[in-house]
User: Fold Formiminotransferase cyclodeaminase N-terminal like 1 from Poecilia latipinna.
Amino acid sequence: MASGMLRSRLVACLLNVSEGRRKDLVENVAKAALYDAEGQSRKETTVLNIFNDHDYNRSVITIVASVDSIRDAVLSACQEACALIDMRGHAGVHPCMGSVDLIPIYPLGEAVGERDCVQQALAVARGLTETVRGASVFLFGWADAALQRGLARRRKEMGWFRKSPDLQALTADVGPPPRERYGLTGVGASPYVMNCNVSIDTLDVAVGRSIAAALRESVPGGLPGVQVLALPHEGAVEIACNVESVAGAAPGGPTDPPWPRFVVDGRPYCHAPAALIMARVAELAGQQGVGVKGTALVGFTPQECRGLAELALSEGIGEFWREQRRIHM
Assistant:
């Protein structure tokens, strides 16, 4: 296994880029995280998974590194993505605003805390806007120092959920006013956020939206930490869930699956399990006579992410996604 010191200092970045159809291009972005300008492998860095979605025209690249190495790995991947992805020609059903749409930094090791993740997130934000002329950033989560606004709130403020956000009306937190070429990138830090998507067997997006509305944490009976979109996807409707970690004891009922738990800076966190999300979607869909087609994680749970990263780093496997073809999504 990776050394105890390295295990305790691991962080993850689930890098979201606005390209899901040209897989070779996305692999080049992933490789940029692993190799420096001279082609030398970066130490203490691995790419665990690449998720491509054709309909969404979006990919998620799971990068894990030591907290001391994550900035260079993520920044190099972002520079490559900005060179290859032009938002002026982008089309997809998933909302997005930037060539690099999202850069979240999550602590995995017990020696990494909020302050460490904020430092690295801000370093990436500054590095991106300094090295890619025209790139601009909004901050969220712990990195939004003054207000600590979560990603969903910041996206709403920025118009991310609109079909065609008005970039000219926006002010970046870091860098120049947003431009069409690169759009606007969200950079932040928080406890781990998992992505869980459930497909329902209907073409009626209105049915999906009613299910999404009932699942959101903001409504009575909703699931804590769960933010939801309903989107047309591969001949069905996908209930796409961002599963944020919540502080404190698990809120699940006595018959619910156990909520996975972890600790950051001595504070306990937990997140809704995928099995509970799928069961709730199935229940809500069934009430409208609609079945569930399937469920999938985009990447891993935080526990899986750390465990696989330890394995990859102990064996010196940077391109670990090639060993994970069995991982769906």
